[in-house]
Specification:
Number of domains: 5
Number of strands: 17
CATH architecture of the largest domain: 3-Layer(aba) Sandwich
Structural class: alpha/beta
Number of helices: 36
Strand content: 5-15%
Distance between the termini: 85 Å
Length: about 725
């Protein structure tokens, strides 16, 4: 290598890539490689990692090997390099997607010296035939992209990555680069140790992406509508929607398509040609949105992704950071919106069952960090950067996260913080946060007893504040540097020097109160007869008018008002202003039958109201659904038609009796008539049937089970008996 080439890297940058100057530490990183040093690069997505190995590869003699985990990533990178030069063979990939003749063509280009960059999968690098081939080739450097795959603590651990060092040494003694966008201090240590590069030059850029806006919203049953509204507010802009499962990816893509959004699915279950076609459509802006599992986006060089939506929360903060990092890579707007329900966490925990205990322990810790991030009320940017070992003043967030834009309630917690720090010392810094919190709550567990922690001054002292309060305070003590988690020992809490200093000289400490997303979701779900709320604020004037109309019709029909339409349905109408029969059937709890029977006067009232008050309807709130009959619904209706015992129907579908009744209530409340007389006659005394039926027909003002039990007598009637007869009543009179 010639010295003058090294000294004029700017000229090489301009010649090969057309850029006038380097970004961040790119130049120093490239010089490190050209000097023959092992080099470790931690650089956030969009920081220009690829150029750090691409430029040295083009400058140095021989072929650079770039280890990459995904075929899609390799293809994208190879296409990009070929676009910068006139020689097609300048870049190749070698993986399982090539046939024998294609692989031979690649080897010929390498031998002739044409190929400067060769992208390989770790599995390919481990094959003996390839090792033997590379031994006779001039290798300039080895770059390991997505190096976090080496670590079990990384968000995308791949065992084949841990076998790379012996292969590299077998090929040639050349400089090794490890590159990743996401590495906590623990993962960084793991990578360097495994690759035998503990003496490497380390370049760690700031993890702060100041153009990204982070937001968490509670995931309701109407999450599809919330997403559609958001996407239509960003119409024509590119975005990615991440889902946990392939099935959900397919469903979400279909739902977006029928609502006029150009969306395509992407997951490993699709054949390679379809995946490539969908990826290209997204890059070429023939599709605005890609619905994907986490496989999509690694290395995809689309700089103008304007939003990343997580339908489901990822299993680690590294994964979340990398996926959100695909937004705004050009420095422009990037909105990172995630929908959260604790059910997502429960599903991820179930996925871990059956794995080795050590792997489960790591997975649980990573999940706990995700929950902490989601539920925290402190600056999200500060939380993320602290997780990656970087300190950040939340004043510099500039309201670029939901918590800074809408600050949450704070309260003084100096005494409680002192208590937390002191108790960590009292238990010899040998326990995790859950054990510490159980002490404050006064939990009478065998572990607490065996260590005699029930004799500590702090035992039971904070029971009235509850678990969430102490979780939040411990979390904020860690974020503010008073405590630390010993990751090597599964997250044991330690007191830092700052914590010791705080105990010696306490000062006022304001803690923010965490979000309670589960309460928000429960409020959304707490709807009688399984109907769904419309979400948002209803138009109170219209709601009163709708209730008056319902009352008039109920008098004409001699039926209780709730049989016509239930309150949640009217609230949804007063929020979404449906004016056509099609829009009405999209209202929660309104099926085609009920809409046809009772809908016309309600539609006329709403239409007149909208015109008179010059209301601009939010059309993007009228969400079309993909026509798919629930297999449960069809099976239940068919089984009832055949007069099968309800217990047998429940057993066949793995449902409890309570769940089955809820399913049947959904069916009848949305307009489908069922006849369960055969079962009621066996299960409910005839006199009781008459009393319950008469109550709903003549006395009931609502369909509330609680009100019915109170009126009829809890000692004489069961909830199940009342639900059964209520189904019969609504099925007969509501259709």
């Amino acid at each position: 290598m010639e010295i003058e080439v090294k000294s004029d890297l700017s000229e090489a940058l301009k010649r090969h890539f057309g850029f006038n100057k380097f970004k961040g530490e790119q130049e120093a990183i490239i010089k490190s490689v050209l000097d023959g040093n092992d080099t470790f690069v931690i650089m956030p997505t969009g920081g220009g990692k690829s150029l750090c190995y691409q430029l040295p590869a083009l400058i140095l003699e021989g072929t650079a090997i770039i280890v990459s985990p995904l075929i899609a990533l390799m293809k994208n990178q190879v296409d990009a390099i070929r676009g910068f030069g006139s020689e097609h063979g300048i870049a190749h990939f070698l993986n399982s997607s090539l046939n024998k003749s294609e692989a031979e063509r690649v080897r010929a280009d390498i031998k002739s010296g044409v190929t400067k960059l060769l992208y390989v999968a770790p599995e390919s690098l481990n094959k003996q035939e390839n090792i033997d081939f590379f031994k006779d080739v001039n290798i300039s450097l080895v770059a390991i992209d997505e190096a976090h795959c080496i670590s079990e603590w990384g968000h995308d651990f791949r065992p084949e990555y841990r076998k790379l060092r012996p292969m590299i040494e077998a090929i040639s003694n050349v400089p090794v680069m490890a590159l990743t966008a996401t590495a906590t201090p623990k993962v960084q240590q793991d990578i360097q140790k495994n690759l035998g590069m503990t003496d490497a030059n380390v370049f760690k850029s700031s993890f702060n992406r100041d153009n990204l806006f982070y937001e968490i919203r509670p995931k309701s049953k109407n999450v599809a509508r919330d997403m559609i509204k958001f996407i239509k507010q960003h119409e024509g802009k590119s975005g990615i929607v991440y889902c946990l499962s392939r099935k959900k990816v397919e469903e979400m893509a279909e739902t977006l398509q029928v609502n006029g959004i150009k969306a395509l699915p992407y997951h490993a279950g699709l054949d390679a040609a379809t995946r490539a076609r969908h990826q290209d459509a997204f890059l070429m802006e023939e599709a605005d949105v890609i619905c994907a599992t986490i496989a999509f986006g690694m290395g995809i060089d689309k700089p103008d992704v304007r939003f990343v939506i997580h339908h489901d929360i990822p299993k680690s903060l590294e994964g979340y950071y990398q996926e959100t990092g695909r937004a705004g890579r050009d420095g422009g707007e990037g909105v990172c919106l995630s929908f959260y329900s604790y059910d997502d966490i429960t599903k991820l925990e179930k996925f871990m069952q059956g794995k080795p205990i050590s792997e489960q322990e790591i997975g649980k810790q990573l999940l706990n960090e995700v929950v902490s991030y989601v539920e925290t009320s402190v600056c999200r940017r500060k939380f993320i950067l602290h997780y990656f070992g970087e300190e950040f003043d939340s004043k510099n967030c500039n309201e670029h996260c939901d918590n800074c834009k809408h600050p949450k309630k704070q309260e003084e917690a100096q005494e409680q913080l002192e208590l937390v720090i002191q108790t960590v010392l009292d238990i010899k810094e040998k326990f995790k946060s859950k054990h510490l919190i159980n002490i404050f709550l006064g939990v009478n567990s065998s572990q607490i007893k065996s260590y005699k922690h029930d004799t500590l001054p702090a035992y039971g002292i904070g029971a009235e504040k509850g678990e969430r309060y102490w979780q939040s305070l411990v979390r904020q003590a860690v974020i503010n540097g008073y405590l630390s988690k010993d990751i090597e020992n599964y997250g044991l809490l330690k007191v830092t020097e700052a914590g010791q200093a705080y105990l010696a000289k306490p000062t006022p400490f304001k803690m923010t109160i965490d979000h309670d997303y589960e309460a928000a979701t429960e409020a959304e779900d707490a709807i009688p007869m399984g109907a769904m709320k419309g979400g948002g604020a209803a138009d109170d004037n219209l709601l009163r008018m709708l209730k008056d109309l319902r009352k008039d019709i109920s008098k004409e029909e001699n039926l209780p008002p709730f049989v016509i339409f239930q309150d949640p349905s009217l609230e949804d109408m007063a929020f979404r202003y449906p004016i056509t029969m099609e829009e009405l059937t999209d209202i929660s709890g309104v099926g085609a039958g009920k809409a046809k029977k009772y809908g016309e006067p309600f539609l006329e009232l709403i239409k007149d109201y909208v015109e008179e008050n010059e209301i601009e309807r939010e059309q993007d709130m009228i969400v079309k659904t993909v026509v798919k009959k629930s297999s449960n619904k069809v099976y239940i209706i068919q089984s009832i038609d055949r007069k099968l015992d309800l217990e047998d129907i429940a057993d066949a579908k793995g449902l409890t009796m309570n769940d089955l009744l809820t399913e049947i209530e959904h069916i009848v409340s949305s307009g489908t008539k069922v006849n369960i007389d055969y079962y009621i006659d066996e299960a409910v005394d005839e006199d009781k049937q008459d009393d319950i039926y008469e109550y709903f027909q003549e006395e009931a003002e609502t369909d509330s089970i609680e009100a019915a039990l109170e009126e009829l007598g809890e000692d004489d009637y069961t909830e199940e008996e009342i639900r059964l007869v209520r189904i019969k009543f609504i099925s007969e009179f509501g259709h």
